[in-house]
Amino acid sequence: MSPRSRIGWQPGVLPDGCRHAAALVLIYPIEGRSHLLLTQRRHNLAEHGGQVSLPGGEVDAEESNVQAALRETEEEVGVSRKHVEVVGKLTPLHIPVSRFILHPIVGHAGQRPAVTPSENEVARVIEPSLASLASPSNWSHKRSEGPGAPSEVPFFAVDDLEVWGATAMVLAELLTLLNVTVDPWRADADHFVG
After folding, report:
1. What is the total count of domains within the chain?
2. The CATH number of the domain where 50 resides is what?
3. Angstrom distance (rounded) from CA 77 to CA 116
4. Which distant-in-sequence residues (6+ apart) come within 8 Å of 190 by Cβ?
5. Mean pLDDT for each 10-residue chunk of the chain (194 residues)?
6. What pTM does this model have?
């Protein structure tokens, strides 16, 4: 789910001098099906405003990546760490635009958590099912005219939103571990957004 012609990024390379951030990939049941907790960031935020993201943020000097992911989840959506069982970690990911290295932490909650979104950070909470993310009908790509050269940006369609960038890459890795090969570039994709 990495954009094609992505400037300043090489798979697996974690450059020196970057800040570290952690995010929680929280999985929990709704009506017997596994769902994830995502947020749409408020549009007025300086970094990644309006984008869909995992709850997370910068790792403080005195805390681990796991502690940071749990703290940020409490701050952003009010989910207490005591309701989250940490089950693993995904591959750290370099985000060139913000000079962060993102450490995705996977957690599980036994039931759907009660959420209280932060009015300062979160515009809304999104809860896609893993099944919907695994469906090829929800994978697509579009042309983006960002800084530098134009690129093709893959995304997951979730409700009326597009989940792209680092969040999409983390979700694609999770799905790969669940034996789903995410391929928004497949030849039969007839839903390219031009």
Report:
1. 1
2. 3.90.79.10
3. 5
4. none
5. 65 76 97 95 62 92 96 95 96 84 96 92 92 92 66 87 91 93 70 38
6. 0.87
